[in-house]
Amino acid sequence: MLDNTMYSHKPTPETIRYEINKAVLANPVDLEPEQLAQEIIKGKSFVPGYITTKVNGKLRRTAESWTSQQIVCLDIDNGYYDKKLKKKIKDVRMTWEEAKQEFVDTAMFMYKTFSHTNEWPKFRVVFAFEEPFNNINILKFNTDKLFEKYPFADESTFEANRIFFGGTELHTFDFSNRLKNDPHIVTPISYSPYIENNWGNNIPPQTNNNQQDTNILSNIDIIKSKYTYISERMNKEYLPITVSSRKEAYDYLKRINLHDYLGIQYKHCFDIFHYEKSPSSDIYQDPNTGYWWYKCRSDSNPFTGTIIEVTERLTKLNKPKSLKYLLDSFNITIQKSEWQLEIENLIQQNLELLSDEEYIKEAYPYLNSLLRTPFYYSVLREIHLIALENISTLIQTKESNEAVFYASVNHILKRLDRFCDFDRFKSSKEKRLKVILSLLVYLQLLNRIGTDKLPLEYVKRAKLEAEKKHYKNLITFWSLPSMAATHMQDVERLAKQFQNLGMTVGNFDRQMILKTLGEDEADRVFPMRKGEKLSELNEMICLELEKTMVKYIEQFGWVTEKRIIDNTSLDIADIDSEMRKRDRRIKEDDIISIEDKDKWLYELKRRQLKKIIGGLMIKYKLNKQKLNNELIEKENIPLHYNEKGNLSYPVVYFINK
Fold first, then answer.
1. Residue 420, pLDDT score
2. Fewer Cβ atoms within 10 Å of its own Cβ: the N or the C terminal residue of the chain?
3. CB–CB of 183/135 below 8 Å?
4. Angle, to 10 degrees, between the axis of helix 246-253 and the axis of helix 307-315?
5. What b/e readout covers 254-264, taking b as 16+ CB neighbours within 10 angstroms?
6. Nearest residue to 260 (alpha-carbon basis) of 286, 294, 302, 226
7. Pick the residue with more confidence: 472 or 246?
C-alpha cells in the first residue's frame, strides 16, 4: 500500500493521520523490489501488508483488514524509550556498516530514515519471503522468529498495520534474496474450533486460560494458507499413491473424509464460507459413490461441493493449481503411459484447432457452414474434454490403435447444460444433441465404435452399466480421429457432399444416410443400428415420392420438391393410428380433423423427401439449383409463385445434361 506523496522529512502525526493513512488505503500496488526501493528513496510512505479486506463495509489500517503480505521491514532505531525520562535514549546495537555485512545473504535492500545520523544510525532493512502469507498468524510466527534474532529492533516493526516512511540513502544487497516461509505452526489436534463457533474466519482455538494461542491453526486455516501438511493433521495417514489420470486422482480425493479434512466433527455445522447465527451446513457421504460432500443450505450463500470445490473456494486457487495442492498434500502422483501421452497430445492438438473458429471458417468453408452456431463447437469440445478426463480408462480397439471411451447421451447432455444455453430448444434438447453427434460422426470429426470392435470385457461392462441405469440401449463408445490437415480435407469433402446432395441437419438420421449414401455408410454413422430396415410405411412413402419425381423429370425435365409432395398420393389404411404412433402430442381420445390429417400427411411427405432427395440425385444423375432467369430460359421452366401470389425462386432438380 503506497502513498504517492513524496516527503523530505518525517511527516507530522496530523499528516500521518489525515493524509498518509487515507492515501495508502486507496492505493494498493504491485511492485518489483527494485521499484519499491526507488519509491522509498523518493520519500514515499508505504505499508508492507496488502490491506483490502473490508470490515463492516469499511477499509481500515488494522489487522482485521489485512489480506496478505510478502515484504517485512526490520526497523533498527538503535534506541529505546525511557518511561521515566519520557524520551528515547540512544543505544547503538548495530551500525550501518555492520548491517551491510549482517544482511548480505538475507535482505533485499536497506535505507536510512530521515532522522539518521552517523552518531545515531537509524535505518530499515527490507526482506521478502519466498511466498506471500495469507494467514496473519503464520506471518506473525515467522516475524517473531526474525525478532528473536534481532531483539534490539523496534517492537512495532512487524505490526500488520505499520506505516513506514521514505528515506534518504539506499544500499542494495540482492533484490532476489528471499527468506524461507516456515509453515509449521501446528499442534496435533483432531478437530478445529469450527465445530463450536466458526464462520470461516481465522478464529484461532482458545487455550485453557482463555488466551489466544497463535501457534495453533485450524485445518481450515492451514488449507487457506495452502500448506500441504494438512494430511499430517488428519486421523488417517495417506501413503504415496500413483494414478494414471486426473480422473483417477479426483476419484481418490473425493473419497477422503471431509470431517477429517476440514477438522469438523459433526454432520451439521456452521458454514465455513460465510457468517451465520445458526448452522446451515452438512457434511455427508454418498453411499453409492463413496464421495464426501459439503452442502450449505442457506438462502444467501448456497453451496454444494466435494473436496475439490471446497479446496478451490478456501484456497482461491484456480482448478489446476488447486488440484496440484491436493496432489502434493496427499502424496498422489499422476503417471501416464507412452500411449496415453500420445492420445492426450492428439486431443490437445484437436482442441487447439477447434478453438480457432476463424481459421476453420477460412480454411474449411463447407464445414463451417454446417457447424452453424457456437453450440456445435461446444459439443465437439466437450466430447474431447470427456476423453481427456478419462485418459486412464481409454481402451484400444481390436483392429487399430484408436483410443476408445464411453459416454452416454445423458452424461454429455448434463455436461453441456452447465455451459450452453438450451433455452431455445428445451423441449427437444436430447433429440437435438443426438442429431449433432450423428452429424459429427458423418463428418468423421467423431467416431462411433460398434461393440463388434471392442474387447469382450468392455461389452460386458457396457451391458451392466445400461442395466444399472435402466438405459434402453448400450452406452455409446466413441473415438476421436486426429484433425490433421489430410484428415480435415476428407472432413471438408463430406461437408461439401452434405450440402450438394441437399441433406439437412433438421432431418438428419439413419434413413437419410441409408437412402443417400448406402447401407455401409449408414452402419458407420449408426453402428448400434446395423442391419436395421425401414418400416413398410416409410418404404412405401419413399417409393411413391420417387415415382412422382421420375414422372415429372421424364415429362418436363425438371421438378421442385413442392411439386413432388403435392402430387404424391399415399394410401394409408389407418391414418389416425399412425398419427398417434408418430406424434406423442396427439392423445388417444383426441378427435383428429380432416385438416389435421392433410397437414400431417404433407409434413410426413416433406420430411421423407428430405431424407431421400440426395440419393435420388445420385441415382438419376440430377443437378439442383435455385431457380433464376437463366435457368428458366435454359430449361424452359415457367415462372413460380408463392401462396401470396409473389414471384418465387425455389430449388429445382433437373437432368444433368
1. 55
2. C
3. no
4. 90
5. bebebbbbbbb
6. 294
7. 246
| Structural contact between residues 477 and 449, judged by C-beta atoms closer than 8 angstroms | yes
Q: Is 412 within 8 Å of 484 (Cβ atoms)?
A: no
Residue 572 is placed in which grid cell? 394409408
C-alpha cell at 527: 453402428
The Cα–Cα gap between 623 and 501 comes to 9
Instruction: Quote the CA–CA distance of 446 and 448 in Å, as a whole number.
Output: 7
Alpha-carbon distance of 382 to 371, in angstroms, equals 15
Strands 2-6 and 44-46: antiparallel
Give the orientation angle of helix 536-556 with respect to helix 594-620, to 10 degrees: 60
Burial of 606: CB neighbours in 10 Å, binned 0-12, 13-18, 19+: middle
3-state secondary structure of 545: helix
Closest by CA to 397, choosing from 334, 357, 441, 451, is 451
Three-class secondary structure assignment of 481-510 = CCCCHHHHHHHHHHHHHHHHCCCCCCCCCH
Q: Is the predicted pLDDT of residue 166 greater than 80, yes or no? A: yes
Q: What is the pTM of this model?
A: 0.55
C-alpha cell at 217: 491453526
Give burial (CB, 10 Å; 0-12/13-18/19+) of 162.
middle
Residue 122 vs residues 37, 407, 520: alpha-carbon distances, Å: 17, 70, 89
555 backbone dihedrals φ, ψ, rounded to 5°? -80, -40
Q: How far apart are CA 183 and CA 221, in angstroms?
A: 11
Beta bridge partners of 624: 653
pLDDT in tens, 53-72: 887 788 888 888 888 899 99
- Cell digits of residue 6: 513524496
Q: What backbone torsions phi and psi does residue 20 show, to the nearest 5 degrees?
A: -65, -45
DSSP for 614-655, please give it: HHHHHHHTEEEEE--HHHHHHTTPPPEE-TTS-EE--EEEEE
**DSSP calls for 572-603:** -TTHHHHHHHH-TTS-TTPPPPHHHHHHHHHH
The per-residue pLDDT for 471 is 64
